[in-house]
Design a protein that fits this description.
Blueprint (H helix, E strand, L loop, with lengths): L8 E8 L5 H10 L19 H6 L6 E7 L2 E7 L7 H10 L2 E7 L6 H12 L3 E7 L1 H6 L5 H23 L6 H7 L28 E5 L4 E3 L1 H12 L3 H7 L5 E3 L4 E3 L14 H18 L6 H9 L6 H4 L4 H12 L2 H12 L3 H12 L13 H15 L10 E11 L15 H4 L9 E11 L1 E3 L3 E5 L11 H4 E5 L2 E6 L2 E5 L1 E3 L3 E5 L9 E4 L18 E7 L5 H14 L4 E4 L5 E5 L2 H15 L4 E3 L6 E5 L11 H4 L6 E4 L5 E9 L2 H9 L1 H8 L18 H20 L4 H14 L3 E5 L6 E4 L12 E2 L5 H6 L4 H6 L10 H9 L1 H13 L11 E9 L6 H29 L2 E15 L3 H10 L3 E7 L5 E9 L6 H8 L5 E11 L11 H7 L9 H13 L22
Parallel strand pairs: 1-3, 1-4, 4-5, 5-6, 28-30
Antiparallel strand pairs: 2-3, 6-7, 8-9, 10-11, 10-19, 11-18, 12-17, 13-14, 13-19, 15-16, 15-18, 20-22, 20-23, 21-22, 24-31, 25-26, 26-30, 27-28, 29-30, 31-33, 31-34, 32-33
Helix pairs in contact: 1-14, 4-6, 4-7, 6-10, 8-9, 10-11, 10-13, 19-20, 22-24, 24-25, 29-30
This protein binds guanosine-5'-triphosphate and magnesium ion.
């Protein structure tokens, strides 16, 4: 690569909600570089080079292209806006320093706008706002310039509100903030907020907001207009620029810019300068050009005043749209407006990396220094510093980050090297990749040093720890970089080397990297922090070859697909099925197509989606004291089971956890895994200005806060009771023995209360508050309190045996929580108290010894059974995953859309008319199980006019009792005697899962859950 001054490089990405015009904008930037003809710009969608992207007219992957602007070189990454491909936004953002955030001026802020702003914020990108499709305000909505101004003002304000909520650490989820609506509704009268809000991220008067029409190829930021009017009005460009946004008015008499107060009273006609000097001329040109009776002289005036050089051929075109585009794209060329804003407002790699370092390579504080080689630590610090400085000297350590791997058909790999040397196509194939025609490339950015093709480099996975010698083998590999390419959309240009601050594609890492990795020339380097993904893949299907003998081809295909797609997940289920998890239907379709046509090339059978459920109990959510029942009530209800050998009696109680606590446990599963697994949690510096906080402490606070908020909401008016309840809960939280399933799930196993139970049936297996201790919910004083109160007489051996059975109780709990009684789906939000009493072995000792190995197994199985029965007796409920769904539809299809929603059990949350247009936005929750084919049905019923976007939102229990049978007289009157009750939804879902899993499906409804009578039938 030619040597370029790093100060003259910009790495940027385009982010937006689906269809807001990213790829169209990219076309114009590419055309300005001569890589695309002016005429096809905006139509070709150059960056959507995959066949499937062109067919569906949406972008599905992020792709990069190198552009130049003056002496600047700009790496531009176009990203998809569709929710299914949001992982590609993460991979694009990681490699960029700046983000152009597009918003459609008519559609306004949408859910994915929130998501991309958050992504830019997390990755510490410098954003600029681009308000696109201004033409729609003129031609479609037919707004007056003043109305259009108010609309633009509102969008800028709303976007600023979103960013400021991230800044002030109000970590609302995207869904929460969307439902909350725009921060502080603005009335048209009151726009004074623009005045002095220095904190706003996006300020047109500062030049980081552009107003564009990507379709017609024009755009501007206020700089362009300020420069133009400066000479005309005899004011400095800087002053004008400040005046061109907000309630600022120009008084021609005095040649003064005044605020609202400075206007003479009675002057109601004054328009803000933005309206008068910017929008009105635009509107005039549009009207002149497009309306049959338009004043054509206006077009000539613009051509003359701006000295535009337009070929007659274009001016005389019969299509007024062509004339308009010819004039506008020369008057306010889009690429100039955008690229000058990029160069002006976005940082070069050197300043960007020093700002982004805390996110990319958080400072590690090594707490335990013994056994650590100080020289490694010092070198790792040196490496970090050279990333911080974006040191591009050849002797600086070379560090790069691969944000994704992508597959390219072999024939697209340039057959020549950087110097034009011919390569042997067979050499292009990687070892071990077999007979595929695919080549895997890494999408990477160099953060320090120089990357040279042919060199060897260490590939570090996210778990790599340079200080641990034993981890070395597993998380680091050595790879040879076979070739480097500059990406020009689909085209690859071989280069010999690339310096820090550049984005490249690398060949030769296919066998070493699955999805992402850090590359380093030294092993003394921490891996980069992992990227944040907005959702996880949730739509799962089982796949098998149509012809069983193609199994090997399928396995190979899945392996390739897994590598080629940053987001797909390929697993083998416990029943041996190959399960593919994708982000949504469109994503899944593409994966299957790729698998069929590229990676496996066989016929496939795809199962209906495997939807995940969870199981819980009804519980009494209005009463937080309920959870304390066990500890307060000696006679509380329990389920009792005895091991087959009669030596262990197990009693189980189940209670429901407060919803907020369940959520905290769910959200922090990773951290809990680390804490409970005994991993040393290094204190990490969180993003930028935020204070450093110990993650365990933060978790502890969240747990207490969750419980307390629940109590407060119940005892709103009774502070005494609330306090009492809180202190009881605080005690309870000191008794967490284990979490399940898999030690981290949202179910708590509490240690039994020793004082409460008399040892009437044997010695109690007590357990230890292991989790409470790890999270630090125990203070040391209480640690000892639980210790010995047992009477001396009970024989010690039995005590030891009880102690040795603790792990069996935990295993039983883990098994039970991983597969509930309804349909063997994991339990969710439950608290279990398990008391296992061991009694003396009365039988022949020899036999007992023989049986002993077996005894632990018996306890485990009995604990599991008792837990499951306890759940079954406590009004079990099915829990399903819900999508948050944002729908847009023209008014005339509102009815049809609601009909589709109703058929699919959706719950409408909010309905809003888009101001100034006939478009409705509706927010709803939609069960994941009902989402299959939803988009298609919606399209069919609304003739394609309505669109929907789905984001995974939360888990929600179905209120229905799956075992409902009419019992009271009224019920019997309504539903009959039970023989003919139509199955309710919960029951149908449960049976479907049971059938799929090959579990017996109960033909007869359980009459009394306690004495369940089942006529099992294998299906
Ligand atoms: N009226 C109008 N339409 C536009 C404008 N810019 C883009 N479009 C249209 O909007 C549609 C979507 O454009 P794309 O560029 O594919 O949008 P995108 O943001 O890349 O979409 P995804 O990549 O799928 O998220 C196309 O039909 C464009 O022609 C504009 O300024 N005005
Ligand atoms: Mg696109």
């Amino acid at each position: 690569m030619a040597q370029v001054d790093a100060k003259k490089v910009r790495n940027i990405c385009i982010l937006a909600h689906v269809d807001h015009g990213k790829t169209t904008l990219a076309d114009h930037l590419i055309a300005a570089n001569g890589l695309l003809s002016r005429k096809s710009a905006g139509k070709l969608r150059f960056m959507d080079y995959l066949e499937e992207e062109q067919r569906r007219a949406i972008t599905m992957k992020s792709a990069s292209i190198g552009l130049s602007y003056g002496d600047y070189s700009i790496n531009l990454i176009d990203s998809p806006g569709h929710m299914d491909f949001c992982s590609e936004v993460s991979t694009a953002a990681r490699l960029s320093d700046g983000a152009l955030v597009l918003v459609d001026a008519v559609e306004g802020v949408h859910i994915q706008t929130h998501a991309v702003l958050r992504q830019a914020w997390i990755e510490k990108l410098t954003p600029c706002l681009v308000l696109n499709k201004i033409d729609r305000l003129i031609c479609e909505l037919k707004l007056s310039p003043m109305e259009a101004y108010n609309r633009l003002l509102r969008i800028v304000h709303e976007v600023n509100g979103i960013v400021s909520s991230y800044k002030s650490e109000k970590y609302l989820s995207d869904v929460d903030s969307l439902l909350a609506g725009p921060n502080g509704e603005v009335s048209d009268e009151n726009q004074e907020f623009v005045e002095d809000d220095e904190e706003d991220t996006f300020q047109p008067q500062k030049g980081n907001v552009a107003f564009v029409c990507a379709l017609d190829g024009w755009g501007f930021s206020l700089n362009e207009f300020a420069n133009f009017y400066a000479s005309k009005l005899g004011a400095s460009a800087a002053t004008l620029q400040k005046g061109l946004w907000g309630p600022r008015y120009f008084i021609p008499k005095t040649k003064m810019i005044v605020g609202k107060k400075g206007l003479e009273s009675g002057n109601n006609k004054a328009r803000p300068m933005f309206v008068q000097f910017v929008l009105e001329p635009l509107w005039q040109v549009y009207q002149a050009a497009l309306e049959p009776d338009g004043d054509k002289s206006m077009v000539d005036k613009v051509i003359r005043s701006f000295n535009l050089n337009i070929p007659n051929r274009e001016l005389q075109n019969n299509d007024p749209k062509v004339v308009l585009q010819a004039v506008m794209s020369r008057w306010l060329p889009l690429a100039d407006a955008i690229l000058s804003m990029v160069v002006r407002c976005m940082p070069d790699p050197v300043s960007a990396q020093s700002f982004r370092i805390s996110r990319l390579l958080p400072k590690r504080e090594v707490l335990a220094l013994d056994g650590v080689d100080p020289s490694i630590l010092a070198e790792a610090e040196l490496v970090r510093r050279s990333v911080e400085n974006c040191d591009s000297s050849p002797d600086a350590p070379c560090v790069a980050f691969v944000s994704k791997m992508f597959a390219v058909p072999l024939q697209q790999i340039p057959p020549k090297g950087p110097q034009g040397e011919i390569l042997n196509l067979n050499d292009l194939k990687e070892e071990g990749s077999g007979d595929t025609d695919e080549c895997f490339l890494a999408f990477a950015r160099i953060f320090s040093g120089v990357l040279t093709s042919g060199s060897r480099i260490f590939v570090l996975s996210a778990l790599y720890d340079p200080l641990k010698v034993d981890s070395v083998q597993r998380h680091v590999q050595v790879a040879e970089l076979q070739a480097l390419y500059l990406m020009m959309g689909q085209k690859l240009e071989p280069i010999y080397s690339a310096e820090a601050g550049n984005i490249v594609a690398i060949r030769g890492l296919g066998q070493h990297i699955l999805k992402s990795a850090t590359l380093s020339s030294t092993m003394s380097c921490w891996p980069f922090s992992s990227m944040a993904f907005q959702v996880s893949p949730t739509l799962r299907v089982a796949i098998e070859p149509s012809d069983p003998s193609d199994m090997a081809a399928l396995m190979k295909g899945l392996r390739l697909l897994n590598r080629a797609d940053p987001f797909v997940e390929v697993t083998v289920s416990s029943r041996g099925e190959h399960v593919l998890a994708a982000a949504g239907e469109v994503h899944l379709d593409r994966c299957i197509k790729d698998l069929r046509e590229r990676f496996a090339r066989i016929n496939l059978e795809v199962s209906p989606p495997l939807v995940s459920y969870k199981e819980t109990i009804e519980g009494d959510q209005s009463n937080p004291l309920e959870y304390l029942k066990y500890f307060m009530d000696k006679n509380a209800d329990f389920v009792e089971k005895t091991t087959p050998n009669g030596r262990c009696v197990v009693r189980v109680q189940v209670l429901k956890l407060p919803a907020a606590l369940t959520k905290v446990l769910d959200d922090n599963a990773d951290l809990l895994g680390d804490v409970i697994g005994g991993k040393q949690i290094v204190q990490r510096q969180t993003s930028g200005s935020l204070e450093e906080e110990n993650p365990i402490e933060a978790l502890r606070k969240q747990i207490t806060a969750a419980v307390e908020s629940d109590i407060d909401s119940v005892f709103e008016n009774d502070k005494d009771r609330a306090d009492k309840c809180k202190s009881k809960w605080a005690k309870l939280l000191k008794n967490i023995w284990s979490l399940g399933p898999r030690q981290i799930g949202p179910n708590i196993l509490f240690t039994p209360d020793i004082k409460k139970r008399e040892c009437d049936v044997g010695v109690l297996v007590r357990g230890v508050p292991y989790v409470s201790t790890r999270i630090g919910l125990m203070d040391n004083s209480s640690n000892g309190a639980a210790s010995d109160t047992a009477s001396e007489e009970v024989d010690r051996e039995l005590h030891l045996e009880a102690q040795s059975l603790e792990s069996s109780v935990i295993s039983g709990f883990q098994l039970a929580t991983s597969a509930g009684p309804l349909c063997e789906e994991p339990m969710w939000g439950l608290a279990l108290v398990i008391e296992a009493f061991v009694s003396r072995d009365e039988s022949d000792t020899n036999q007992a010894v023989e049986q002993h190995g077996n005894f632990t197994g018996q306890v485990m199985a009995t604990v599991k059974e008792a837990c499951r029965t306890a759940v079954l007796r406590s009004k079990p409920r099915l829990v399903e995953a819900m999508y948050f769904c944002e729908l847009n539809t023209p008014t005339e299809y509102l009815g049809a859309m609601y009909a589709v929603l109703a058929r699919r059990r959706a719950r409408v949350l909010k309905e809003e008319m888009q101001e100034g247009s006939a478009l409705f936005t509706v927010n709803a929750y939609l069960p994941v199980a009902e989402s299959i084919g939803f988009a298609d049905e919606l399209r069919r019923w609304t003739s394609g006019a309505a669109s929907a976007l789905l984001v995974l939102s939360h888990w929600e229990a179905l209120l229905e009792d799956p075992f409902f049978v009419p019992r009271t007289e009224e019920e019997i009157e309504e539903f009959g005697d039970g023989s003919s009750v139509p199955q309710n939804t919960a029951r149908k879902l449960i049976d479907a899962v049971r059938r799929r899993k090959g579990l017996p499906v109960e033909e007869k409804v359980v009459r009394h859950a306690t004495k369940q009578r089942t006529l099992a039938r294998k299906v």
